[in-house]
Design goal:
Layout lengths: L1 H10 L10 H6 L4 H22 L11 H7 L6 H15 L3 H15 L3 H9 L5 H20 L2 H25 L18 H19 L4 H22 L4 H23 L9 H9 L1
Length: 283
């Protein structure tokens, strides 16, 4: 469990006990999707709390009381709710991945050669490319959260942080780390293949449980988007860094949310959890 504590301590502001030795960080990547599930559960809980605060008196709901708990709410300023949820996730992660996203776009889009791009990645200042990337990504997340239908909303919110943290493992495994020492170096000391396999099991099982087989499209999308970010970095700087991991996480997270909206346009319940039907059957 030291790997789990290390993953929680590194990826979140949540208490995880005393910071362990560097060897614990090498065990942490396999737990990244689990930490993502924890973050998703917290954000989904905030979403339920906000909507319950605005719930109208009970009315009959098609799927029974449980479905009403998740979807039967009066009108709420949904854009504001989306902002709150995105802010909560950013706060829980200390903006770690957003910082990596900004640095990545500043370096890969703005540097004129490999050496300069690596220098920009180390620079704590944020340039125009980074600001634009962060703003557009946050707008995409908020807009997608606003558009998610109630029938699939809770389950998607809970799942997406898991898939975006799993996406980091894809980049770790597929692309070389370009620095001898860096933020991501301790995570690679035990190799990446085992972490990817263990994390993939968690990601796939969580997806099927929370969103059903249709949700596997989201898993594929997270992996492809993360791979595209890694490929871009490899072409520009010869490999990846810790900032690239953060950019892959954030970019895949936004892309998966947008894709979830597209999937549910025709069928609002397309990403509803199979557990909902089972619980309603025994309610």
């Amino acid at each position: 469990m030291r790997g789990l504590r290390a993953a929680i301590g590194f990826l979140t502001i949540l208490p995880a006990g005393r910071r362990g030795p560097a060897t614990d960080l090498s065990r942490a990547p396999a737990w990244f999707p689990v930490v993502g599930l924890l973050l998703g559960a917290i954000v989904a809980g905030v979403d339920v709390f906000i909507r319950l605060a605005y719930a109208i008196p009970w009315i009959p709901a098609r799927g029974g009381e449980l479905e009403f708990l998740l979807t039967g709410y009066r009108e709420f300023p949904f854009f504001l709710e989306g902002v709150v949820l995105v802010a909560v996730l950013a706060m829980l992660t200390r903006g770690l991945h957003l910082d990596g996203l900004a640095d990545t776009y500043d370096a890969l889009a703005g540097g004129h050669d490999q050496e300069r791009r690596l220098e920009i990645l180390r620079d704590p200042h944020v340039g125009a490319f980074g600001v634009v990337a962060v703003v557009l990504l946050l707008l995409a997340k908020v807009s997608a959260l606003v558009a998610l239908p109630g029938e699939s909303r809770l389950w998607t919110i809970a799942l997406v942080p898991c898939l975006s943290r799993w996406a980091i493992l894809v980049v770790m495994d597929r692309f070389p780390y370009v620095r001898r020492e860096g933020l991501g170096t301790p995570f690679l000391r035990r190799g990446s293949r085992g972490s990817l396999l263990a994390g993939s099991v968690v990601a796939v099982v969580a997806t099927v449980v929370l969103t059903g087989p249709v949700g596997l499209v989201l898993v594929a999308a997270a992996g492809l988007i993360a791979g595209a970010v890694g490929m871009w970095a490899k072409r520009r700087i010869g490999g990846v860094t810790g900032d690239i991991y953060g950019a892959a996480c954030e970019t895949s997270e936004a892309a998966v949310l947008v894709l979830a909206v597209a999937i549910t346009l025709g069928d609002p319940g397309a990403l509803g959890s199979p557990l909902l039907a089972l619980l309603d059957a025994y309610a």
